[in-house]
Design brief:
Elements lengths: L1 H14 L7 E4 L2 E4 L6 E4 L6 E4 L5 E4 L4 H12 L4 H21 L5 H8 L6 E5 L14 E6 L2 H9 L4 E3 L12 E7 L8 H14 E12 L13 E2 L44 H12 L3 E2 L5 E2 L3 H6 L2 E9 L8 H8 L2 E4 L4 E9 L5 H6 L5 E9 L2 E8 L2
Helix pairs in contact: 3-5
Keywords: Methyltransferase, Transferase
GO molecular function, one term: S-adenosylmethionine-dependent methyltransferase activity
Protein name: Methyltransferase type 11 domain-containing protein
Length: 392
């Protein structure tokens, strides 16, 4: 009992120091509170300023010096691009109950990492989803956060301590936790700067000597047939996408793809066209690969390198009609073009944005970090994974 009391006291002490901003904790759901409709952020030594609007968007006023540009650039990384708002945040809010019902199996590598942590460790799960890893190790304390308020409510209803928070702007004090995990989260961030910032945040919130486990979807999928079901996106997703409207599949005439440029991250993305995504995907895939069938009926690509260069995708989520809210989120999504009906499969189909990682990409993102080192890296279930240790 004495040990339990000591652990409880330690947990409370750390919990009340988690958020650098005031928060409201209702049924274990923690939200940052920003008073007023507008905040001004003064830039030292200048008359210019950045303003934070009620919608969370930072706006730069007047001309800024080089140093000021860097400050506002840092702020802009934390501003969510429209691509992510529409094809990550809104989608997961809409599919949360069905998504949660399919997410119950624990990955052995993640479970092994959590079970290896010292007794009484405080663990942050950044991007916890439905909270399947929260409490996995009964000898540790867990705090979770996710950008989806709907998924966070599911976690809270299960009795977990959870927060609505952004992976690139975690609301925790520096060095508060003993370890952190980010499982299948970074691939939903649409620019390299945001992916790097999310890793920096994970390292920031753990104490010196703390460990961070990160997993992301890999380009090198073990099941190659999955790629034919995904919609590849074009780097210049306005000028080069096919036909009127966007988002669209990439143009067959432009096969080289890199990450979406930071300068285009907030360009508004229009609604879906009326054409079938499956038909478009099939035609594009045929243009990308001259295929033949092997003895085991698998697809053989004539230019496999071109396929592997593709890293930006829309990955469909089929929400069965009986799970879709007729007058709720799905109805709105269908009306706005965010989703479409597939009568053959009896489902409402949502597209989720993914940036799948190539081999070595995770390591490159942390290569210039001076406060963390990679202590392990591995490939598991079509995911690239690294474990970082904070050194200072």
């Amino acid at each position: 009992m004495v040990f339990d009391a000591q652990r409880t006291t330690r947990c409370f002490y750390k919990f009340w120091e988690l958020c650098p901003l005031p928060f409201v904790n209702i049924r274990s759901v923690c939200h940052q509170v920003i008073s007023g409709t507008m905040k001004e952020i003064k830039v030292k030594g200048a008359s210019s300023l950045c303003t934070l609007g009620s919608d969370g968007e930072y706006n730069v006023q007047d001309s800024l010096s080089t140093s000021e540009d860097r400050i506002c650039s840092s702020l802009s990384v934390k501003v969510t691009p429209e691509l992510e708002k529409k094809y990550v945040h809104h989608v997961y809010d809409a599919i949360a109950p069905h998504f949660s019902s399919t997410r119950f199996a624990k990955w052995p590598k993640v479970a092994s990492f959590l079970n290896s942590l010292p007794l009484g460790s405080l663990v942050l799960d950044a991007g916890c989803g439905n909270g399947k890893y929260l409490g996995l190790n009964p000898d540790c304390f867990f705090v979770g956060c996710d950008i989806s308020a709907t998924l966070i409510k599911i976690c809270a209803d299960r009795g977990n301590e959870v927060f609505v928070a952004d992976a690139v702007n975690l609301p925790y004090r520096t060095g508060f936790s003993d370890a952190a995990i980010s499982i299948a989260v970074l691939h939903h961030l649409s620019t390299e700067k945001r992916r790097k910032k999310a890793i920096e945040e994970l390292v920031r919130v753990v104490k010196k000597g703390g460990l961070v486990l990160i997993t992301v979807w890999a380009v090198e999928q073990e099941d190659k047939s999955l790629l034919t079901k995904w919609t590849p996106l074009n780097q210049k997703y306005v000028e080069e996408w096919i036909g009127p409207g966007s988002p669209r599949i990439r143009s067959p005439s432009s096969l080289t793809l890199q990450s979406i440029p930071e300068t285009e991250e907030n360009r508004f993305l229009g609604e879906h066209g009326k054409d079938s995504k499956e038909n478009f995907t099939e035609r594009v895939w045929e243009s990308m690969c001259l295929t033949s069938k092997s003895e085991d009926n698998s697809v053989i690509s004539k230019d496999e390198k071109t396929i592997m260069d593709q890293q930006e995708y829309f990955v469909p989520w089929h929400l069965p009609y009986h799970r879709a809210e007729v007058s709720g989120a799905s109805a709105c999504a269908l009306a706005s073009g965010l989703a479409k009906k597939d009568d053959k499969k009896g489902a409402v189909v949502y597209n989720r944005y993914y940036h799948v990682f190539s081999e070595g990409e995770l390591e490159r993102l942390v290569s210039d970090m001076d406060n963390a080192v990679i202590v392990d890296r591995f490939f598991d279930k079509s995911n690239w994974c690294i474990i970082l240790e904070k050194t200072s």
